[in-house]
Write a structure and sequence with these properties.
Elements lengths: L1 H12 L7 E5 L11 H11 L6 E6 L3 E2 L2 E4 L15 H4 L9 H10 L5 E4 L6 H10 L7 E3 L2 E2 L4 H9 L9 E7 L17 H15 L3 H5 L6 H6 L7 H7 L8 E4 L3 E2 L3 E2 L2 E4 L1
Parallel strand pairs: 1-8, 2-6, 2-8, 3-7, 4-5
Antiparallel strand pairs: 1-12, 9-12, 10-11
Length: about 270
């Protein structure tokens, strides 16, 4: 069964150039309907790379006990938030799913069993950025969940097993925020807190020097990082992206700005 699945994917996509990998600081869901420097950064990044055959997204907003992948033909657009204008709730992102890619992902991961999910769809960590990158919703999309029971190093090692998809034209996106503390948001202006600047700069330095051991032990990097990552779900997608970097690949930052005091929009592109 596993061999048949691999053959189907090979026939469907064939071998391609190695696709880039992205980490996107997605921030406020309103970015899905507003025009700003961040939405332009996402759109420009999409234009700079080969259009993918499909997208695999690891979003901060799908946490599960165990690991799952969406496996439906038509994933729903999930409005997993409240208190926003009706215009945002009216947004639909009708990208097709990709059952064969879900099968391939399941077959390629050996670290843990991967289950199929038929009722999640695309949450705002996924569609709010993709609607700016691929507004025609013409690229198939699946999501891989975050097992909230597992530590950072476990997620980093799991992510490495997804590397083969990059040669099948699959764009892998981690969507979260390096600094994400909703409890300390500055509602008065966008000026970032000193601790947020320090945490964001620390992570960027560790990324640049490829100090992945320290990055997986983020909670031991001092008080600024503890404030920046009060809960792990927005940080884990960054580890999925970094785990997929080849030694000789270029890495560049974009949208490198902290807003509302405690939300970093810093994003990066590998390859």
């Amino acid at each position: 069964m596993k061999v048949n699945t691999l053959n189907k994917i090979a026939d469907q996509y064939g071998n391609t150039e190695t696709m880039p990998v992205l980490f996107l600081g997605h921030g406020n869901p309103m970015n899905a309907i507003e025009e700003n420097e961040f939405t332009k950064g996402w759109a420009d990044t999409a234009k700079s790379i080969t259009k993918p055959n499909a997208i695999l997204c690891i979003s901060a907003h799908w946490e599960t006990q165990g690991t799952f992948v969406t496996a439906m033909d038509k994933p729903q657009t999930i409005h997993d938030f409240g208190g926003f204008p009706q215009q945002l709730f009216d947004v639909q992102y009708p990208a097709p799913g990709d059952v064969e890619l879900a099968n391939e992902t399941k077959a390629g991961v050996t670290k843990t069993p991967v289950g199929f999910n038929y009722d999640w769809g695309l949450d705002h960590g996924c569609w709010s950025v993709l609607t700016r990158m691929y507004p025609n919703a013409d690229v198939p999309v699946i999501q891989l969940s975050l097992d909230y029971t597992k530590p950072a190093q476990w997620h980093f090692e799991l992510a490495k097993e997804l590397a083969f998809l990059r040669k099948k034209g699959v764009l892998i996106i981690g969507s979260g925020n390096i600094v994400h503390n909703l409890g300390l948001i500055n509602w008065k202006d966008d000026k970032p807190f000193d601790w947020a600047i320090e945490a964001n700069d620390t992570i960027k330095k560790l990324i640049t020097t490829q100090d992945y051991q320290s990055l997986t032990k983020y909670d031991s990097l001092g008080k600024p990082m503890q404030l920046a990552v009060p809960t792990p779900e927005h940080y884990m997608p960054l580890l999925y992206t970094l785990a997929l970097k080849n030694e000789d690949e270029n890495l560049s930052f974009f949208n490198d700005k902290t807003v509302m005091g405690s939300i970093s929009m810093t994003s990066l592109k590998i390859g």
